[in-house]
Amino acid sequence: MSRHRAALFDVDGTLTDTNHLHVVSWWEALRQHGHHVPMHAIHRAIGLPGEDLLDHLLEADRDRGEDELMSAAHDTLYATYFDRLPALESAADLLRTLSEAGWKVVLVTSAKDRELGALRRAIDADDAITDTATSDDVQQGKPAPDPLHHALELAGTPPERAAFVGDTVWDMKAAVRAGVAGIGLLCGGIPRGDLEEAGAAAAYRDPAHLLAELADSPFAAVPSA
After folding, report:
1. Are residues 98 and 44 in the same domain?
2. Is the peptide bond between 143 and the residue preceding it cis, with omega within 30 degrees of 0?
3. 179 phi-psi bin (left φ>0, alpha ψ -120 to 50, beta other)
4. What is the number of domains present in the chain?
5. 126 and 162 share one domain
């Protein structure tokens, strides 16, 4: 096992201000296939892998033959934003500060290929990122602990020497199940109470707030060895 600690990060809504772009893209993809789902319900489902998101939002007896078409429509719609995805304030500074302090920084995301490339360009901190764990690497996405287990394997770090930063209840539930300290950010639009109920050890407004409070955050309680 590595002597390093691992700082695991969700991306959408945590490091980039992109949750509502996903909401609009899913809303339109669903509408195109005859499903009229309120945006607030879609927002609550963001963070789940596409297949799980559709299971969460739609009736169980639907024609599942359309699921791939809806996911493809979402991907096409979301791709129109790739050249202007906004990073959240101080996201890059937070990653670099942790990396310079000796943490292994691993992104944990459902994003694939071109989307992940666009997100990393928006964050602009590749020099601080050790590795990336995606939903393609595991059988189940968040809230299952599989993505975090995979991220810990990539970092060579046990759960007790890691912390995971995310913005959804799915992130916090995955952290609890993986035995990793969960840190919630409110910038994804989910209330503090919901994140704490799902297992967040603490919650901060955004990456800038977490960076400012880093010395007193759950990161400071993670043992180095």
Report:
1. no
2. yes
3. left
4. 2
5. yes
Quickly state the pLDDT bin for 67 (edges 50, 70, 90).
Answer: very high
Strand, helix or coil for residue 60:
coil
| Residue ranges making up the domain that contains 66 | 19-80
Give the residue-averaged pLDDT of 131-148.
91
Would you call 11 exposed, middle or buried from its count of C-beta atoms within 10 A (0-12, 13-18, 19+)? buried
β-strand 104-109 against 6-9: which pairing, if any?
A: parallel
| Stretch 35-64: mean pLDDT | 95
Inter-axis angle of helices 113-123 and 67-79, nearest 10: 30
Dist CA 201 CA 220 (whole Å): 12
Q: Mark whether 170 and 118 lie in a shared domain.
A: yes
pLDDT tens readout for residues 165-218:
999 999 999 999 999 999 999 999 999 999 999 999 999 999 999 999 999 999
The pLDDT of residue 1? 54
User: Is 49 in the same domain as 160?
Assistant: no
Say whether both 175 and 108 belong to one domain: yes
